[in-house]
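Hi F.,

I've been meaning to write this up properly since the lab meeting, where we talked about keeping a consistent format for the predictions we share between groups. The idea is simple: the sequence comes first, exactly as it goes in, then the structure tokens exactly as they come out, then a line or two of notes. No screenshots and no reformatting. I'm using this chain as the first example so we have something concrete to point to.
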Amino acid sequence: MADRRVAITGVGVICAAGSNVPDAWASIRRGVSSIGQITSVDASLLRFQNGAEVRDYDSAKYFEGSRADHLDRFAQFAVIAAREAVADAGIEFTPELREKTAVVCGCGGGGQITQDAGYVDLYQRGKSRVHPMIVPRTMASSGVSHVTMEFGICGPSYTVSTACSSSNHAIGQAFHMVRRGEVEMALTGGSEAPFAMGCLKAWEAMRVIAPDTCRPFCVDRRGMILGEGAGIIVLEPLEAARARGAKIYAEILGFGMSADAHHITQPTVEGPARAIRGALADAKLAPEQIGYINAHGTATPGNDPAETSGIRKVFGPHADRLAVSSTKSMHGHALGAAGSIEAVVTIMALHDGVLPPTANFTQADPACDLDYIPNAPRKASVEAALSNSFAFGGLNAVLAFRNSK
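Output, unedited:
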């Protein structure tokens, strides 16, 4: 079977910027930072006080009865985003379609909140037993499992865990399955909920969290800001989407991945560049066809110059004509879910012809010399865009999207 073109027909998201796509995209496209005081744990016990949380989240609004008791927060987010994406795509699942649909999601840490509560029971409260649902709640795959159960999906379903590249790897795998004809539809993206004291203390120990806010590519950047949430997109063959009259947000054209094979935390230039080249080659796009890049842009000392240099290495003179932004400056770094949220943002940017800015921007680091769309959105209709994810351990994943208009 010849490769098929793959359309994005549904999008769903929940993150600090909003609990659905219309709200989150409206906030992000305006350049509003959703970073603020951490409220879900006692932040006075931490060296950093700010995060990008889903504010005022109440599981009872989404899950009836005791169902929420079976899902950690990260899995709840996955189901919520999947519901929105499926409704947005207007899918009516038949028994045949359920067997030919895949669910592939990324998650870096799994049920951190559930795990943390179990440790508190054991080591702080001295209990001899833990909650009987800890194992199924903490499994990194439980988000995918609950999405399959939500819709009765019986096709290939699994979780990818590659730290901060998890969602991009998941979306890329799902894209290839649809393109090759292995499945007729895929729900794909990722979810994460890292606001548990043990997890936050672990990030505190790494000394990479900013004490104030996230300022990617700026000379005065002080580190990343943690975020949480989920993003899910619906993929299906372009011809099938057109035949059923579906709304088509964009096409997904390519996926590139690589390993730095260098250091567990320090990035290289060549590893990300190799993944970008791979995405372009897979998409059969020339570098000059890319008009926008949603950067990994963590605001850490190591990532931002390396990513800038990687982009320049691939694009050469065209790098000066690229628009680049890091939306982590608004929705935080959602770790394994970062790529999924940023994929939704990139898709909406192509669909609406508005490029989101890098918020909180002050003055560019001399080592970061691209057009980072500082602080204000930009109206621009671009042909194609990339979304970058680069993880600890040197695991890189890049997605290529094309405007469907």
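Notes:
DSSP finds 13 helices and 14 strands in the chain.
The two ends are 26 Å apart (CA to CA).

If this format works for you, I'll send the rest the same way.

G.
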